[in-house]
Amino acid sequence: MELVWQAAVSGVVLGLVYALVALGLSLIWGVMDVVNLAHAEYLMLAMYATYWLWALGRLDPALAFPVVVPVFFGLGWLTHQALICRIVRAPLAAQIFATFGLLFVLRYSAFAAFGPNVYGVWRTGEGTVTVLGVSVAASKVVAAGVSLAAFGLLAAFLRYTKTGKALQAAAQNRDVALALGIPVDRMYALSWGIGVASVALAGVFLIPFYQVSPTIGDAFLLLAFASVVLGGFGRVDGALVGGLSIGLLENLLGTLVSPTFKFLFVFAAFVAMLLVRPQGLLGDVGR
Amino acid sequence: MSHRQVLPALALGGLVLVPLWVQDSFFLNAMIHVFLLGAAAQAWNLIGGYAGQISFGHAAFFGLGAYTTSWLLSRHGVSPWGGLWAGAGVAIGVSLVLGYPTFRLRRHFFALATLALAEILRISFLNWEAVGAAVGLYLPLQYRNRLAYLMWDSKPPYYWTALGVVTLATAVAWVVDRHRAGRYLRAVEQDEDAAEMLGIPTRRYKLFAMGLSAALTAVAGGVYSLYVLYIDPYNVMASRISLLVVVIALIGGRGTVAGPLLGAPFIVLLNEYTRAWLGGRGAGVDFILFGLLVVLLSLYQPRGLVGLLNAFRAPPQPVPSGAGDDRPEPMQGASQEGEVVLRIRGVQKSFGGVWAVRGVDLDVRRGEILGLVGPNGAGKSTLFDCLTGFLRPDAGEAVADGVRLVGLAPHRVAWAGLARTFQNLRVFPELSVWDNVLCGVEHRGEGLWEATLREVPLPVQEEVAQLLRSFNLWEQRHQRAGELSYGQQKLLSLAMVVLRRPRVVLLDEPAAGVNPVLVEEMAQRIRALHAAGLTFVVIEHNMDFVTRTCHRVAFMAEGQVVTVGAPEEVQRDPRVLELYYGR
Predict the structure, then answer these.
(1) Can you tell me the ipTM of this complex?
(2) Which of A180, B44, B378, B465 could bridge across to B320 with cysteines, CB 3.0–4.6 Å?
(3) Over pLDDT 90: what percentage of chain B?
(4) Count of pairs with CB atoms under 8 A, one residue in A, one in B
């Protein structure tokens, strides 16, 4: 029982990190119905950025986000302006292939620049924190807290600011929003900015306990997809619920059954969800 | 033989002879990869190109083929001649288990599911002791140099085997491409709903393409395992294989037989040689280039290298003999005029508490043209959706000549004899006018193998030719439907649905957005088809069109049929005047 409780608590902590990774994917998917296959590559790049700031600039990863996050916001905006705005209304296949090509470019640019080696931030005296009777690495608790804060901020932004409401309007009906004078293209670019910035935020706080290599995007892309589909695609709170479910599923079944198969359970749950309830846990029925 | 047959034969002959002159093992190794990955890309193209269902998990099928073949050989001494078949069978099984449920879902879900499938299989095989887990499987060397086991000491025999595999995959793709199945798959890719409504069982064709694709990929994987003699999840189930296969088909030209053949040497040779020239450090450089190419092609040239080579080339069409402007023969039973052919009773549909259709009763009589008019939002198109299986009504029943329609999938509704056009145009823009109409043949009782191996019979092609002449579309038969004017596309969509002489044709605003000359043309065509025995239900706002074309008019408002009668009667009805014109 003790073991299960431990697994559950660290599952929630991990789940919050997954949720932050999935946040941007879900936002962009929801706002413009584009699935960004290159999403996790931005995570990988942000992890490299934070790593090099630490390795070369001696900047503590926890303090790197004021530098990294704005840069990646700009990168997301730029991606929209240079590529995505040209394929928003293209056939589905063109959309898939555009971000698929982007995935290649980003991943193998990192490969060419940094090589296939694994990099991680090593700090001595890494502390632990006791959460609900379970001791968890401090860096993970920080990452989980940052995730909660990011979800809170985004929810407040969408609900209480004029721009946030305009973004929601653009997501619900492009034509009506245009007719009301909402600059829909700018809202789309904004969603890419926020989406990429949020996954970069996740990268900044992942690097203290997760090593980076050019191909880590594979696993995280699937985890992010799984979170979004499990929670309900196209809704920001879906990513939170989905991320938490996946963190819990991975840790509980990994502990109770076998740690080698933990991702198998996650992806099996993902496929099962696609088959049984494609709209996700929170999604509306009948769409 | 025409030059179209001579060229591939010469190319194949030349490739067979290559190892007699070139013994450079690096080159032969690269060519074996070209052939095997080319075969897998050709297979991917069946589902990802023709059917438009994009798979990012083809490494799963490649790996299943490799594992089945190797496991049977190393653990049970089964010859690869049996093992390759077994691998194909396993891959088909897995592909159908994945495809059957996910093909219900549209948009991105199939791609996501394939991504997860590949990962699930890789993790499972990494931990499955019976297939060697992370250690993998070694192939027993004592079987080498025996044709029965397809394993050799030198590279040329592998070269020929791999060439055989890519030839097989290409032949299969060519057969599909040249016959009905290829046309239907393209139609599914372009507009699945419209394909369904023509009676094409879209899910069956997608599953067919998926199974074929998985089987061919598995064969390529099986031969690959015989070549490398050692497999583990990292070399036969790597995501790199899934990605290369997609990139080859994409850059070569999706949805064409030549595409993967052009893409494979380009991608694989570039991949192999940059690896050799630049070493491990530069291994990613070629992939950056592939990525850029994929992005550029997605923006500017969806058909890849093939599309660049022939920006557009009209495919040769059979030109049936005989001319004339004959009407189609009246369908059987058309003489029993006045009998009810479509009975609608109590059909209701609400969306989240808002009634779109609330209790519609309507009889459509054989041989009439029934107009369905009413203000926007009256529920006319929703009623059509309920009748044709796109929506499931909350309550009510619709029966066409004894066949209950509610609960049937759209293609079954089509098989029951209903045809339908859509309010917004639904032709297949990338198919030629000729192919568009050929998609409208009777699909009831049309077998998969028949559709794959045979073209539409000549008498039916003759009918298509006559239909196109009578619709004044004969001259445009080689053009892509997307190049026609809007009005011509509307005529085409009518021609597509009447080819199989359905019992009832539902037309959703046939005259909307069309210039007056073509409105007249449309009215003439409908009257002519009516004279030939067809029954119509026409939603239309153009009252002039309705009064001149329809025998009876049903007026709908707020989800209900308010009145039915002769056009003049309905137009004078005070309730209609109030509801339609606001008096």
Answers:
(1) 0.85
(2) B465
(3) 32
(4) 131
